[in-house]
Every structure is written in C-alpha cells, then in structure tokens.
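Predict structure. Input: Reverse transcriptase, 1210 residues.
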Amino acid sequence: MEQFEDFLIAGRKIGLEGKDLVVFAEKREATYKEQVQRDERQQEREHLKQMKEYELQIAEQQSNLAGTAVTISTGQIRNVNKPKLPPFQDRKDDLDAYIKRFERFAQAVDWPEQQWATILSTQLTGRALELYSRLPPDKASDYQELKKALLHRYDYTEEGFRLKFRTAKREEGETYSQFAQRMAGYLDRWTELVEVKDYETLKDLLVREQMLLACPKDLVVFLRERKPTSVKDMTGYADQYALAHDSNRNVERQKTPFRRPQVETKGSNPHSPVDPKTTVDNAVRCFVCGGKGHIARFCRNRYKTQGAFNKDKAAGVEVSEANANANGRPTVSQPLGACVQVSPCQHVTSSGGKHVKLACGGELPIVSAACSLGGKMPVVQGMVGDQRVEVLRDTGCSTTVVQRSLVKESQFLPEERHCVLIDGTVRKFPAAEIQIDTPYYQGTIVALCIDKPLYGLVLGNISGVRKPEDPDPNWQFPLDKDNAIRHAKDKETEIGAVETRSQKEKKNKPFSSLKVHDIQNIASSKEFAKAQKDDVSLEKIWKFAEEGSVRKTGIANEIKFVKKKDMLVREFTSPNVEKGRLFKQLVVPSKYREQVMKVAHDSVMSGHLGAKKTSDRVLANFYWPGLLDDIKRYCASCDICQRTIAKGKVARVPLDDMPLIDTPFRRIAVDIVGPIQPVTDKGSRYILTVVDYATRYPEAVALPKIEAERVAEALLTIFSRVGVPQEILTDLGTQFTAEVMKEVSRLISMKQLHTTPYHPICNGLCERFNGTLKRMLRRMCVERPKDWDRYLPALLFSYREAPQESLGFSPFELLYGRTVRGPLAILRELWSKENDEEEVKTTYEYVVELRNRLERTCQLAQDELAKSAKRYKKYYDVRTRDRKFTKGDKVLVLLPTDSNKLLVQWQGPFEVTKKVGKNDYVIDKQGKDKIYHANLLKKYVERQNDEITHASACLENVGAGILNDHDCEVLDEVEFPPVKPKETVQNVHISDKCDKNEVGQVKELLDEFHDVLTDVPGKTNLVEYTMKLTTSDPVQSKPYAVPHARRDSLKHEIDEMLQMRVIEKSTSPYASPIVLVPKSDGSLRFCIDYRKLNSVTIFDPEPIPNIEDLFSKISKGTWFTKLDLSKGYWQIPIKESDRDKTAFITSEGGLFQFTVLPFGMVNAPAVFTRMMRLLLEGFDNVINYIDDYKIGNITNLTFAKSRVDLYSED
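Output follows.
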C-alpha cells in the first residue's frame, strides 16, 4: 500500500491533517484503485474478444467439414447427407448414451428438431427398430414421443434409473471419478423423469422411496400400480389399503435389543432384577439333557454317544424310546407338541414355506421348533390367562402351541385341527381360544393344546407377533391385586404382631367429613310464593301469567307463564333445545336468586363449573329475568375460580421495545447457572455467564460458590479483558443485590439494572445463552461429566465463532473486526495448501481501515437487530392483549409456593398502589411494596351484595352480544345517519391556498347544492340489489345475548332506522344475529353477523378499481375535490322479494329486515362499484373507490364546471 503513503505525504504538503488528511488519502486511493480496475477489465475484454474470434474460426472449419445443407425458411432440409453416426447396436450399445450422443451431434450440425425422429429411425436396429415400426405415424414422427417409447422399452424409466443409481458398481478399468460421474448421471435422469425441480420435491421423492422399502411386498405392488406423485397421495393409498386388508398389525416395530428373562427369587419384587450369581434358581435349564440347575456348556451328557432313539427333545414334547415305533417315529397315540426332533435326521422332511399345501388345495400349519437346542433360545416369561409360563418364540412354527393343563374347559373350541410335524407326520390336536400376555404378543389367539410340551407356550409365525430378537422392552407382568394385598397382609401379620400407640390412636380417630358450604334459611313453599308476589321485578311477568298468552321469540321458541299452586312457573319449548322438550321453570324472586346460584356453582355437587354449564343447570329448573348475566357475574366473582384459573388463560401483555445498544460492552447481561451436578474435580458447581448486548459476545466462569464477593471478583476479572460496562442487567439474586455488589458498582461507576421478580424474559438474552450453553455441555460431557468446567473455553469459542441470527455476524467479527482462525479454517489450509499473504500496511493505515470496517459491520448488525426485534415482537404479540390496571384495583399475583418454587399459584388479592414503567406495577403485599410485571397479575373481581341485578322487563334471551375486537372477525360497521342532517355545507373544508375569488366561487357552488351536500343518505334509481343464493333453505343463526345496560341504546338506534325507513318489521324465516363490538374509544359498533348468509350467496365478480390506475387518471390535475358519500350502501334499494333474506333479530321488537343494501353483505362492494361506474360514466376527470370519489382538473374554471355537472348528476 505504497500509494496510500504517497497520498498521505501529498496531503500533508498541501496543509491537510487529521481526519481531512485521511479522507483525502482514501479518496485518492479509491480513484487509483478504480483506474487500475478499469485497465484490468479492458485487458480482459480484449482477451475475450480474441478468444471469441478464434472459436468462430474453429466453428467455421467444422461447419465446412460437416456435409450438411442449409435449412430453408420452411424448416425442411434441402439435402442432408447421411449422418456420420454409427448405427445403434442392440444388446451392445447403451441406448441412453446413444441418444445423448445423437442429440449433441444434431445440435452441432444444426438439424431442425422436427427431423430428428426421421434421422434417428435410420440408425435403429433390433428391438429398437421393431418398436419404431409399431408406433403410430404421428408418434413415430415426433422425436420426444419416439425417445420416450425407446427409453421405456429398454427400461430407462424412473424406476430403471433409480435401480441403476442404487445398485451401480465400479466397472473394471473405470476410475472413481468416472464412476462418480456415471452415478451422478443416473441421479440426474432419475430426478428429471420424476420432475424434481426444488428441494421439497427431492425430499418428497426420497421419502416415497424409503417408504416403499419399508412396506410389505403386497402393499408395494398396490402402491406402484397407482403411481402416487407425492407422499400425501402415497400415504392416502397406503391407509386405504391398510383399512381394507387390516395390515396395521403387520407394521414393522422398531428393533430393540433382546432382553433375557430376569431371574426372580421367592418373596422378591417381580419387577426388580436379581443377580443370578447370588441365588439358586431352578429356571436355568440345560438344552442338551433338559435338566435344571446347569447349562448345556457344562452338561455331562454333551459328548456322550446316544442310541438310535435315546431321548429326543423338542419345544413341544418329550419323545422317549419306549414310545417310538420301529422306524424311530412316535406312536400315533403319543400326543405331539410344537416339534419332534427325530434321530436319525433322514426322517426330517423339509418344507419350503410356512404351510404345507395339500392336493385338495388346502393348507396345514407346520408345527416345529429349532431342532438344535442351543444355549440362546428365545425363551421369556409370560402369562396364559392368569398363570405364569415359559414362552418360546419359534420361527420354524406357523401356529401356536399351549400346554393343555393351562387351558380351561370353557376355552376349548368344538373342533380339532390338523398340523404337520417336523418329521413329516400329520396329527390332530384340540384347539382352544386363549388370552396371552407376553413380550412377543398380547391378545386373544387360537392355539393347539398338547399335554407335555417342554414350554408352556410356543409362539410361531402368527400375524402380529414380534420377531425373536425384538421382544417388547417395556413389557412387565400385570399386577395381581389380590396376591399383592394378600402378600401385604401376611407381611404385616409377620412384622406388626403388636398394635402400636399410633395405630390405636388412628383406629379410634373419628371419621372426618368433607367441608361444604352450609345452606341456611331454606324458605318454605308459602314463603317462596309470598316472595314471588312481593317482588317488584316480577310484576310484568304476573300480568303475562294472568293473560295466559303464548309468546314466540327467536325463530320457533315458545314461552308461556302460568300459575300453579299459587306459584309462578315459566313453560319454555324450543326445537333447538333437547328436541322440543317442555321445560317447567320455577320463577325465582330476587330474595332467593343468590341462594340458587350458590347451590348451582359453589356446592360440593356442582364443582365450580363455568358460566355456560351453570346457566344450563339452573335453566333446567329455575328462571328469572336477567338470569344469564347474573350467573355470569356470579361465576366471574367466585373467589375459588379466580384463584385456580390456569396460568395460560390470562393473556400476556404485548412485548416492550428494548433499546438497541451500539457500543460493545456498554451494557451487559449477567446471570448464574446452577447448581450443576456432578461437581467438578476443582469443586465448581456454578457458572457465571455474561453476554454483551451490542455484539452478543459471551463470557462464562466456573465457580465453586456464588457469594457476592466471589461473583464480584469474577466480574472484575472479565472487565479486565473487555472493559468496564456502563450498565449491568441482573435478576434479584442476593449476590447481585448485596451491599458488596452495590459498593463495587459505585466504585467503577457502573449502573445496576434489575429485572422484575419471577419475570426472566426481561433478561432473555442471557437466559437464552444459558440454555444453549447447558445443552452444549450436556452433549460434550457424556463421557467425562466431572470435567464440564474444562470444556467451557472450547464451547465459548464455538458460540463466538457462529453468526448470530439476529445480527447476521459472529461475536468475534463484531468485537475484533475480522474473522477468527478456527478449526475449519485450519483444516481448509491443510487440504488446499493455500496461505493468504496479508498485505503489508502501516500502523496508521491499519487503524483507519479497522475503524471503518467496525463501523460498517456494527451499523449492519444494528439494522439486522432492529428488523429481528420487530419480527420477534410481531410473533410474540399475536396472542397478547393490552391489559392495564389502575390505582386501587385488586389483583391476584402468580407466585411460587412456599414449599416448592417450581410450583406457582395465584395469591392475593392485593391492591395496586402505583404504576412503574409500561407494564410494571407496585403491589401492596402485606404492608410491603413489591414490583411485579403485568404478566404475573390478574384482576380480581370482588363480589358485592348489590351486584346481582334484577331486570323487570327482560323476558327473552335474544339479541346482540358484546365481543372484543381480538375475539371475533372484523365485521362491517353500521353507523346510523341522523334523521336530521348534522353536517351541512358549513362543514366543508376549503384549502387555504385558494384566493378570495376562488373561495367565493366554491361557496356559491356549495350553496347551490346545499340539499345534496348533507350527511342524510338519498336513494339511487340506477341499480337495485338482488340476492341469489345456492339453496332455498332459510339461513338461521342462534341469537346472542345482550347486556341490560346496552339495550336502551340499541332500541334507540332501531327506532331511528325505522323512522328513516331503512328497516321494516318482518316475518321472514331468515334470521341473523346482532353483534356489538367495542371500539378503542369506548363506544360500540352496531354490526350484523351475515357470515352464515354470505356462505350460501352466489359471488358477484364485479372488479374493484385499482388505486394506482385511478390516480394515474387524474395525475395531471392541479385542483382536487374529495367527496365521501354518506352511507353509500344505504342509497341502493333492495329488490322487494329479497328483503326477507336480510332479516335480523332484536331483543325488543323481534325480527326486522332492510329495505336498502345493508353493510356486511358479501356482494355489497361489487354492487356499489357497478352503480358508481354507471353514475360517473362520461366524467373523465372523476375517479371513485367504493364510496369515496375525487375530482381533478387543470384549471379552476373546468374544476367548477365538473363539480356542477357532478352535483347535478347526483
């Protein structure tokens, strides 16, 4: 970098210094480098030009050598010489390679592709030529069709290339690089045929292939016949096949190591293994002589010569010499088992399959076992019914054999079954249906019953059985409760022969009853009847009872009040409630309503269910006006329900923004991990972790203890390497809040920041690093867990070297300004033998360049961090809700219990004294002020005596419901226009840039059309809204309940719409509910839930105007007027025959229907856009988007004329 020094010298000569000198040198150096790069690019272009010319000459020479004619404009070849290609040799040449060579040759000589099929046909021989002759003319002349047919004939298909790729082997004389290229070619052709274009389709292909390898053969054939194109299709076909063939029981289980049967001793726990070396167990059996107490390895008879038929053993039966005939075979009367091993071996007949096929076409199962009884037979313990037996898993047997004495008489089947023994004889045995529970099979099976098998149960190759090397590792003996209780009693009798004082005291202790709420002051029938008559809230109901009329509410609900035995009873029926059952509900006066709710919600037989189930329970027997709201408030104010609500039911508050730190180690996050087990050889059991907020650079120190002094000393050790930070963020641990830490912070001028209690997310940066560090330690210290502290430096290097997702750079790069040389860089140097020669720079130049690099890197990291923070906040805030508390509110606090800090519960209620920050609150907890985050708080609803309301006129539970904005979809708002105009021409805003003449002209125009420019909607005659549905069945939705406090305002709005003739009374079979949605300012939106009606409405495809196209239409204008139609939808009338479909339910007047287009209809925007397009036809300088339109003109004169024309059109 001599030029940089020269530029510095030149700058000093002209009087520059400091930063100006550096900027001057950098600019001159940049100019010099740019000139050098331009020269290099110019030389490269000259070189490329020469190479192109040389290639062009070569191509011309090759073209002259090829004896091909030039193609004329019609695409036909005027004179094509015979291609200089050897013909295809059938059974000798590789067709795929030959076609590739043909295509490359055809492209080189510039043959038109429509002639390729004809030329290729002249080179075909053998089977290829035969195939070409059988193709239809149209396919024979199409090269792609011919190529496809040839490849398919020679098995160059998707499956063919897959097999070539999977089974390819290096050929003789072929190098490994050539072999790899050949395999790559197979893979390319395979993926090309299955149309793999991206990673997802490649993954889908590999999963499909692996799934076929894991499926049974019959299922593989079934799937290949249907040619699934995705994993979803393949799994659908496989599930369909499994459902039809019941193949779920044949699914391959994951192989687990074979578990030998554990040796047990009398009186020991059947589930705990016992060392067989320390016990005498008769379960050990010799496979040579059959004796117990020793194994075949030490058997005395192992090498003795036996007679022709001394004693043969098998899994199923013992055959002695006395029971054998002259041929060495057992007698017919001899009951045989799973296998008979016959000596000599020439009597054994081999079977080629699992069954023997008879001449008649039937099959007999083979009953066999391993003829050579080795020392590793798959024998385990199992259960037949309720009896414990030894179980042999015999792969040479195709059925199941059980000892006859283990089978009950009721389990025998009225049939006998034939089977073929290993010696070739056919025998009949009784069959029984038994229940077995073994590590190889659990369930009910049909088994052959034999008198004297060597094993109580022999499992053959039946459907659903596990392999011999794959018993269920989690299988255990089922608990026998009677035996366990009997064993416990015997043990107690043996040990506790004397009754102790505690036992006697416990025996004499009286039985304690459950704590339940006392229900006092149960009124008599006369008192209840008198309370009904004296209750003011029931006066109107008494009048209805005297009239005896039946009131219909909702769609088909019927209500009638009657008087029975001097008591007021409500009779209610609805086809939607228990199929029209008649409910007789006793009307409850105000005096006894709380008592009814207490029994329905608080009693021991109620279980503190929610408001919905509690309401259903009460309505089955009782009724009073406002019952649903009273029960809802009662359940919401229940102290037990509030204290036991799940933590996840309380919504979190939105995430706050953390300040972005741009200076390394200006703020650090500190935490302690531990205690960690096991303790290291140095006595370390804790880890002090430190993370920098700007660079995410971590530090970790292993500590034996975490006293404040030791932690402060470790922090100062870290500060000596990276510098003293300005701020340190910790939790409220005693080591961080101690006086020693405060004094250290004061001495080094470091500000201490603390998180709120039990809210670790505030220190999420350090908590996340702690989790990563512990996971890395757990994986690295598997072999030497006591040396985990020695792994810390290596793991810290790994973390610092990896780029951070939120920053885009590694901590090393952000702190040092360069890439640190790590293991992978060293390995690359060893393999590539490359050593990057560093440029020789002066100290001044190096410092300047390093500073610039760090500034650019940190700026990029800060930008990425800001984007990541926004993204994380967006994901976090999806399920949050902004919850606020005010001073004096009672809240419950989610705190750990005194016995276990990992178990939390709601405690309180406590009073909020003040707010600290955005989401932190000071709580008065038993006289002490404590700060808690809003996520740990839940508002406590106190129950007051006057809380239960008594509405006197509410007889129907229909109307609107109140929903929160985050609980429902956004519905179109219905803003009611006033009957008398509230906005006139006086409310029009005129731009301040207009002069007096222009303002006067505008006002004259406004006065001329003052009757049009109001907020009272008119009515158009251009279009009429018609509604087309996909079904003729009326659409009905269940009405929502409306609070009493909102019914007056709802009735007022309905009266205004009736007065404006926007709605009218209705007897329609259609019904849609009303929904009141709270706004952010506290007011309510009046909406109609037409979602169910919209789902059966035929969609109107009228397009909505594009905003960019609209503004480009008036882009040349200099004068603009913006107009907003007042309730534009309400200015379009509805066809009279379709008005009944817009009906909605109210709590005061029943059903109403619209006479104009209501808000919320799916086709409302399309119809209104069509009307505006017809209205504004001919106005080139007027645009509209739904009910907003704008006028744009070049001069004020044409502007005024356009407005006059437009107002006249309206």
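The mean pLDDT is 71.
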